[in-house]
Amino acid sequence: MNLISDDELTNLLVQKNIKNWSETIDFVKCLPYGRNSNRQDLSLMLKENRGTCSSKHAFLRKIATLNHIENVKLIVGMYKMNHLNTPKIGKVLQDHHLDFIPESHCYLMINNERLDVTTRNSDFNNLKKYIIQEIEIEPEQVDIFKVEYHQNFIKHWLINNKIDRNLDEIWNIREKCIKNLQV
């Protein structure tokens, strides 16, 4: 499926000599993992040469929409982030006496198949059994909505599991985990 749109994001890809959907997926998957300076600006993933699960998959969903590529959904999956599925965070969880933290993770569902391009080694099958809940969102929702959804999920998880911590504590531990992933 060739890229046919004349929008800003598609033009940025074409400037990098990327001409179709398959090349777009491969290119995004190979970008280093890292946060962009502004969650709302999907073009920064290309301009800053890095992205997170949110920015990479939101960008791909947006490109699919702009280029009339059908059956591409942006999914947020809440999963049990632990040392087995995310090895670089094991020490942080161990130091804080946690088996896991509920983490929100973006990926695509294309023709009912899940695709994770967060890193070049990402494989959704590594997370599949840890998924707690999935919802479909739009690319513009990776900013405020996704964060609020995630924080509300953690609040309910703390209450329902009678965990004697608060959202701020868990969120700070989570941030340490995410920092380890960027190294």
Automatic annotation (TrEMBL):
Full protein name: Uncharacterized protein
Organism the protein comes from: Chryseobacterium taihuense
